Amino acid sequence: MTRVEQPADPRLDWDLPAFGQLPREARLDALLSRVLAPNAGMMSLDGTNTYVIHGDGETAVVDPGPPDPEHLAGVQRAIGDATCRWILVTHHHLDHAEAAQPWAQRLGARICAAGPDVAGPDGRVLADGDRVALNGTSLTAVATPGHTSDHLAFRLESGAVLTGDHILGRGTSVVTYPEGDLRAYLESLRRVLGLDPSAVYPGHGPELRDDPTAVIEYYLAHRLFREQQIAEVLQSGPSDVKAIVARVYADVDPALHPAAEQSTRAAVEKMRAEEAVVIDAHDIVSLT
Q1: With b meaning 16 or more CB within 10 Å and e meaning fewer, what string describes 276-286?
Q2: Residue 21: exposure state from Cβ atoms within 10 A (0-12, 13-18, ≥19)
Q3: Least packed by Cβ within 10 Å: which of 47, 82, 121, 257?
């Protein structure tokens, strides 16, 4: 493994809203609004970002989030007098998808998602490259598996990308094991990087406009650095994942260690697939 230094998060130098200061409703550009769901938390950050894409007389809603009446009212204000034609979902997690079915019925919209379990019997299952049309504009589905196997991003005609939980406005995305796949996640990051997005609009946290490619490059470097840290721990001898987390995340709030343990397990599984480590019958990890 090529040795890398701990990467610096470029967003630390950006003028981003502090945690808890993200506006509840915002018009981001001529074709895009954001409505912040009232579900802030350790994993959901400021809350789920629900986006409204504005066409000519019709709209699409991306990631409705929780079925909260106050949140729905905010989304309806963003929709205004237009028709809601589509509800798009980046992935099946409840903080993104739970309101999809009830809102589709209420708004008369059709759900689009990567799988029929989210899209429902009357929905549209999207594959990579599928286009979702509105009067005057469209979105293109970009398969970004890794955080979950069914994860999609959506590229706007402006070149901006709605990234769901693939890229966040704060911190880094959690790739959990066994649901997540770190090898797929890294490949998806490289794919989004190749799109050269003009902006990244994440599922949680503030929009990233200053230099979105720098953030994606940081995400890639951060994952490589974590793998390097794991390998350095294992140079002292075999270890279980919990002990690896205690050393790698020693400066992180212990309340976050369960999530870190899942991410570390995903990294270890990637390293095993690449034959960098072995895991014995007692779940002890060793370098090869």
Answers
A1: bbebeeeeebe
A2: exposed
A3: 121
d(Cα 153, Cα 150) in Å, to the nearest integer? Answer: 10
% of the chain surpassing 70 pLDDT: 99
Query: In which element (H, E) is residue 163 found?
Result: strand 161-164
Answer whether 198's CB lies under 8 Å from 212's CB.
yes
As a whole number of angstroms, the distance between CA 44 and CA 37 comes to 10
Q: Which H helix or E strand runs over 268?
A: helix 257-273
Q: How far apart are CA 235 and CA 223, in angstroms?
A: 19
The pLDDT of residue 2 is 57
Convert the pLDDT of each residue in 17-75 to its tens digit: 999 999 999 999 999 999 999 999 988 999 999 999 999 999 999 999 999 999 999 99
- pTM for the complete prediction? 0.95
pLDDT digits (tens, 9 = 90+) for 122-178: 999 999 999 999 999 999 999 999 999 999 999 999 999 999 999 999 999 999 889
Q: What is the DSSP pairing of strand 32-36 with strand 25-29?
A: antiparallel
Could you say which DSSP state residue 12 is in? G
Q: Is 146 left (phi over 0), alpha (psi -120 to 50) or beta?
A: left
Residue that has been written with the tokens 């200061």 in this structure: 21
Task: Give 83's strand partners.
Answer: 58
**Domains contained in the chain, CATH given:** 10-213 (3.60.15.10), 224-287 (1.10.10)
Tokens 């079915």 sit at which residue? 101
Alpha carbon distances (Å) from 87 to 71, 208, 277: 15, 23, 43
Q: Using CA atoms, how far apart are residues 271 and 30, in angstroms rounded to an integer?
A: 44
Q: What's the mean pLDDT when you consider all of the chain? A: 96
Tokens 């409505």, residue located: 35
How many Å is the Cα radius of gyration of the chain? 20
